[in-house]
Fold this sequence. Notes:
The complex is a heterodimer of chains A (531) and B (304). Chain A has 531 residues and is of the alpha+beta class. Helix content of chain A is 53%, strand content 12%.
Amino acid sequence: MAIADSxxxxxxxxxxxxxTVLWKILILAFDAVGVWFIVQAISLGYVELAIxxxxxxxxxxxxxxxDKGYPFRWMALGLAFLLxxxxxxxxxxxxxxxxxxxxxxxxxxxxxxxxxxxxxxLPEDAKTYSWTAYRSPEGDYALWLVDNSDxxxxxxxxxxxxxxxxxxxxxxxEADTKGIPVSLEGxxxxxxxxxxxxxxxxxxxFGIEGEKTVQIRTSKEAAExxxxxxxxxxxxxxxxxxxxxxxxxxxxxxxxxxGKTISPGFRATVGWKNFQEVFNSPALRGPLLTMLIWNFIFxxxxxxxxxxxxxxxxxMYNEEGFPLKKLIRTLLLIPxxxxxxxxxxxxxxxxxxxxxxxxxxxxxxIGVAPRWTSEPFWARTAVIxxxxxxxxxxxxxxxxxxxxxxxxxxxxxxxxxxASGWQRFWKITLPLLLVSVGPLLISSYVFNFNNFxxxxxxxxxxxxxxxxxxxAGYTDILISYIYNLAFAPGGRGVRYGLASAMxxxxxIIVGAITLFQYRFTNxxxxxxxxx
Amino acid sequence: MSxxxxxxxxxxxxxKFQKRFGVAIRLIIAVILIAFSIFPVLWIVSASxxxxxxxxxxxxxxxxxxxxxxxxxxxxxxxxxxxxLKYWTWLWNSIKVSGINTILGVSITTMxxxxxxxxxxxxxxxxxxxxxxxxxxxxxLALVATFALVSxxxxxxxxxxxxxxxxxIMVYLGGSMGMNIWLVKGYMDTIPRxxxxxxxxxxxxxxxxxxxxxxxxxxxxxxxIGILSFIGTxxxxxxxRVLLNDSSKYTLMVGLQLFTSGQFDKKWGVxxxxxxxxxxPIMLLYFLLQDQIVGGLTRGAVKG
Lengths: 531, 304
């Protein structure tokens, strides 16, 4: 590597060693792949993707060719992944939030236009041919066409160019009495009856789509198809060649004045529409509000319960020489060591209303048991209970560490002053503890604010909120609601645009909580000192 | 005089009694808490050895004990069929994805940490702070955009797109530096610079210092971070669920969720066997390396 080869300000010419040459070849190869990728991205209409990859490619070139870029070579790969898969999705979320991306609008405009411009139709006055069909053993078809106006003959196959051909040409059999080849290489000729009865044939387009294609119209006649839609880039309109209708680009769908549309639609910006919909539609707003309130209650209760239990355990078994201290702590740590997805699924089985061990026990003991999956209050109780089980060992770990760091002199002074046990806890232990574990509690709050696994895997967000416009339940939180909108819409069609608009809400809330965390604890200062 | 001694003695014995009473109470509470914390584990162990394979009839001591559920899990029981049960594939996928991600992630992070710890350059502090800020927004918040991004990439290079492990690993790698860079850099800062300075004087370049001097000294922290990263990836559900859609590509966590669809109660025992096998390696890792993990955990968390 040629690093800072300058002595006393005089640039020394770089040596062309084997490594520098290899290095250059590597950069060139990387550039070639990068440029290829960008060209592909643009041809598919992924402009944003092309831009971000372009930034990375240019960045790599600067870092790896200029001497000043040397320190960044150590982190180039890490920064590239960070940029591409962490930072870019944040901006992309904002963009999608202002589009109608979703079912019916899944393609980019370029992709949609490419599809639309391939659509063909059979004009009344089309050029016509009489046809004979051939079939290969694999089920492929070929047509022998005779131009009705000038008697020219052609060979046509789906997806291949229609070529002029004569009987007796290479691969083409000799002519029969009517001048039609008796066979084609690899194909056998169908009788008129077979061809007329064939259900597949009339649906096959022979020739290359978007160029010259021929389709069978009647048992005697095949006709040349023409492209149906013509796109005019200057006015951003499409003209239907079959009847002269004009389609205007209306928010990602080509639409006529009287409301006829062409499918597929495409991704287009729709301004604040997604946000307006959230605030204006009662069927969306109502459930969303219920969910938002729960979204704040759930992490609050989770942090409080897990912290209380974890701290209680720490205090109870903190004493030096408490019998079986190590064993107790190890056994209590077990919930923390199981992957939480597995634990949650186990609890799901145990909370099963009909067959689960919890309800069977409750029925045996007191004769009644809550319907965890259909009663909102009990569903939420189950969520909090399971999270208590999942979360208290972590709180136990962090509080027992922090407890040991509180100097014992303070307690001794308090005892001398006559403070009771409760007073010592509330006036000394808790405040001092909160200083050290406070930031961790806020992190835990944020984690639970987005605790998708628990909500989704335990009860699927249910029980459902009646009258909700999209799938939403009483234990759903924003992130699980967003997941449903985008990936499990339940027959309503995926809505990436709306889901991304909601994700922006999530960003704002999480950002605000973190700002609070940095502002009111000394985390940021501590960090700033450590760089 | 004797009076005082007697009172003192009585007081002492009552204090001793109080103390013993307190310990007894706390031991009873401990038993209750332990019951709460290990009951699900006992219950799932019992379910896995209950040949009845049903949620409804299970009791803590299986009435019909055996290893049938494990045979069913590995498709050795012709009478039990569950369409897309590919347990070994899922487990292998999980180990593969987590392993590759861990090795790449730790390498990327450690190399970057070297620059932040040992080199001085413009933009060092702003970049470090930005990384800390960005990891406030993990890519699970930008779920939809991440899905769209991987889907778009897949339309250009199918091998990196949806339903590929490479695509999933790239998304994981996007978040790996944010998590650990501060931790690794902090640890590296504690290694005295004199060591590498004298090596530089002897003519070693940065790469040699990094690989021959720093890396060996970093072993403990790299092992801890590696294990935490492995456990984290192994336990991820959401990203794998969103990006993989073919049952032969699933990771174990996504595969296990399949049991809950349809009649969970009729597949309970087999699920229990699968859950147990899936959880055991992670539990073992935790208990073997408890001290390191707890140390790394609190340190990493405090630092952000």
